[in-house]
């Protein structure tokens, strides 16, 4: 048991808490896609990785995400009921970082169509966009430490 504990401690120190390709931040690992996909396909990719689209729960996490200065799908949509935003894990949306004037559901402009999925923009603020639009995406997985 002592050896197992020591192994965990040493591997966390040298390898970090996340597997290769994932970035650690607080108690989660994050994966940033190189490709662009629609929201549903992006979410499916995260689920295939044992994760889900990122859920932003704090100002620190928002700052971490916005450091990458790119459009990324996040795990937030109002697909079920227009104007009622929900995180993919069903948790309530308490803290938001919408850009000024957003979400606007496409502002009734046929050019944009219905906008039911949320993404972070290059400036880090959130916007709603048609779920069929291809963006990069961020997956998040909780770090579960099992110290034997
Ligand atoms: Ca909408
Ligand atoms: Ca919008």
From TrEMBL:
Family annotation (SMART domains): CLECT (SM00034)
What UniProt keywords apply to this chain's record, in alphabetical order? Disulfide bond, Lectin
Q: Which Pfam families match?
A: Lectin_C
Q: Start and end of every C-type lectin domain?
A: 25-140
Entry keyword Kinase: no
- GO molecular function term, any single one: carbohydrate binding
On whether Lipid metabolism is a keyword of this UniProt record, the answer is no
Source domain of life: Eukaryota
Q: What is the designated name of this protein?
A: C-type lectin domain-containing protein
User: From which organism does this entry originate?
Assistant: Sphaeramia orbicularis (orbiculate cardinalfish)
